[in-house]
Design a protein that fits this description.
Length: 145
């Protein structure tokens, strides 16, 4: 059976390539789209009722399944867009300003960001430096701590 990990929101959900439909049916979970199954918008007191049997199956069958019970928030809204879009991007308007999140394939870290302007002073490009020699050296130092 092929299995894959997926970052998840408070909506208790999981993704496994072959077992998901059967497991979802067995546990009474919904198909949330794009090969993801689970529950969403549960009251906090019901999360444990759903999570306990799922966790027991994960352990019993050694399934590669990830779960996360964080409450809904703006970060989770952005992360949901990353999971759902092939472009690996998301954006929200927060207090009149657009916030953008992009998957970088490098994971969490410290990355230099620069903004470039046109002649009228409008932002025309945002540049994030990933994978430079200096960045790789810094990330190795951070991982060793």
């Amino acid at each position: 059976m092929t299995r894959s990990r997926r970052r998840l929101g408070r909506r208790t959900r999981w993704r496994t390539t072959c077992a998901s439909p059967a497991l979802a049916k067995e546990l009474g979970a919904s198909d949330l789209g794009r090969g993801t199954f689970g529950w969403k918008d549960l009251p906090v007191e019901q999360v444990g009722e759903k999570a306990t049997p799922l966790q027991e199956r994960i352990e019993k069958d050694s399934l590669a399944v990830g779960v996360d019970y964080r409450p809904h928030c703006n970060l989770e809204r952005l992360n949901a867009q990353l999971r759902e879009r092939e472009e690996d991007t998301g954006s929200l308007v927060l207090d009149g300003a657009r916030a953008v999140e992009c998957g970088n394939r490098w994971g969490d870290g410290l990355f230099p960001v620069s903004r470039h302007f046109d002649a009228e002073g409008r932002t025309v490009r945002i540049r994030v430096e990933l994978g430079t020699q200096e960045r790789q050296r810094l990330m190795r130092r951070l991982q060793l701590r």
